[in-house]
Design a protein that fits this description.
Blueprint (H helix, E strand, L loop, with lengths): L1 H12 L6 H20 L4 E7 L4 E11 L8 E3 H7 L10 E6 L6 H28 L5 E9 L3 E6 L2 E6 L14 E10 L6 E5 L3 H11 L1 H4 L3 E9 L3 E8 L6 H6 L4 H9 L4 E6 L4 H8 L7 E5 L4 E7 H8 L4 H10 L2 E7 L16 H4 L1 H9 L5 H12 L7 H17 L1
Parallel strand pairs: 2-3, 7-9, 11-12, 14-15
Antiparallel strand pairs: 1-2, 2-4, 5-6, 5-8, 6-7, 8-9, 10-11, 13-14
Helix pairs in contact: 2-4, 5-8, 9-11, 10-15, 14-15
Length: 414
């Protein structure tokens, strides 16, 4: 019976990765509780578990007396003599007897099984918590098994991982059953077990992808100095080579862009700019805003503020669509960047624009007014300036400023 009990208990934890000694300790504790239930809290006993032999032995120690007052702690000399013993024992000696598990009763054995199940569940939770705590910041690969309104559940080695909406890449489509990669971002203890949060939008996920795809980064030859990212749209990564013979940006991009393309594909076609890091703030800011051309950079290293001066036709490139380029540059460099627009002299514009080509942008009424006042091209309007245009009936300063901005924007787009 002992062997059957140990084997049945061992089977419960065989695939759980629980150490034999830990299981033995649990069994000793549980059967100790059973002995106390049968023989009292003050019972003097010893539980010995041998996992290799599949054996549990319980030894109960009682004092030999003439007249028994507490059968849980005492045994009569007559009982001892009746049972027979190799040693000659007398009143006052301790008598040790082996207790058969069958004498504990089916109810107590069932209780032992329930207690063991509970202990195993607690240990299993701790094992999972510790396992994923060690994986924090590392990439795991799992299968999507449930898509819910605000999160996605991922199966990884039979454990449930959660990918919340705010950790997903915006507009990325997920399908049940498909394989997905993410980093372990957070591990929390909960009432029902550890909660493992994974992320695809975290900067660390991008860093780990670079390490996987670019051996020089994994080997430490190239170092990632900083990352700025707006998931699903655009990212900037500053890198520095520890070996002057190796071009950091070239190594990251790869032959014909094959390395960076693999990362872009994983991130749902997120555009990635790789720039060379510099300890010189001016150079670093310039590179982070490339390919826009800057005329001047003034920076305050204490307050981490910078003012960049650029021609008006470069401003839209500096800012980027919906301001994403300058936001990422600020995150990447750590500087709050302000743009100072410098108007480009009219004579530097390579080509003029016929006013009729701007009729739709200006509106038919404004176009007719300008044409009737002998302004045939965009440069003629700009060169006239605000004061000259004020002389035209039907144009006030507000409207003139609008006209000038419309015309300038057309030159900037060219």
């Amino acid at each position: 019976m002992n062997i059957d009990i140990v084997e049945s208990f061992a089977q419960m934890v065989r695939d759980k990765g629980i150490d034999k000694d830990v299981l033995a300790g649990i069994l000793e504790e549980i059967f100790g509780i059973l002995v106390k239930k049968k023989y009292g809290e003050e019972a003097n006993f010893d539980v010995v578990v041998n996992m290799d032999r599949g054996d549990i032995e319980i030894f109960l120690e009682r004092e030999i007396v003439e007249n028994v007052e507490d059968p849980n702690k005492q045994v009569s000399i007559e009982e001892v003599n009746r049972r027979g013993n190799d040693e000659e024992l007398e009143v006052g000696d301790d008598y040790v007897e082996k207790i058969e598990l069958s004498t504990l009763g089916r109810r107590l054995i069932l209780l032992a099984r329930q207690n063991l199940n509970q202990k195993i569940r607690e240990i299993e939770k701790d094992i999972i918590y510790n396992e994923y705590s060690e994986l924090l910041g590392e990439i795991v690969v799992g299968d999507i098994y449930q898509i819910r309104k605000n999160d996605i559940l991922v199966n990884h080695n039979k454990n449930e991982l959660m990918l919340p909406r705010n950790e997903q890449i915006p507009y990325e489509r997920y399908k049940k059953g498909e394989t997905i990669r993410a980093i372990v971002k957070e591990v929390k203890k909960g009432n029902t077990g550890p909660m493992i949060i994974v992320s695809r939008s975290d900067n660390m996920f991008l860093r780990r992808l670079f390490e996987i795809e670019i051996p020089e980064i994994y080997d430490g030859i190239i170092e990632i100095k900083s990352i700025a990212r707006e998931p699903g749209e655009r990212a900037k990564v500053a890198v520095e080579s520890q070996d002057k013979r190796i071009d950091a940006v070239g190594a990251c991009v790869g032959m014909k862009g094959v390395r960076i393309h693999a990362i872009v594909k994983e991130l749902n076609n997120e555009n990635i700019d790789v720039v060379n890091y510099s300890e010189d703030p001016a150079a670093f800011i310039q590179r982070s805003l490339a390919p826009a051309k800057l005329k001047k950079i003034d920076f305050d290293p204490i307050d981490k503020k910078a003012v960049v001066t650029a021609d008006s036709d470069q401003v839209s490139m500096i800012v980027g669509r919906n301001g994403v380029n300058i936001r990422l540059a600020m995150k990447l460099t750590g500087y709050d960047i302000e743009i100072l627009r410098e108007e480009k002299p009219f004579e530097e514009y390579e080509e003029d624009i016929e006013l009729i080509d701007l009729k739709e942008e200006l509106g038919a009424d404004i176009y007719e007014i300008l044409i009737n006042n002998r302004y045939d091209t965009a440069l003629e309007v700009l060169q006239a300036g605000t004061e000259k245009l004020k002389e035209i009936e039907g144009l006030d300063e507000v409207k003139i400023n609008e006209i000038i901005e419309i015309i300038k924007s057309q030159f900037e787009e060219e």
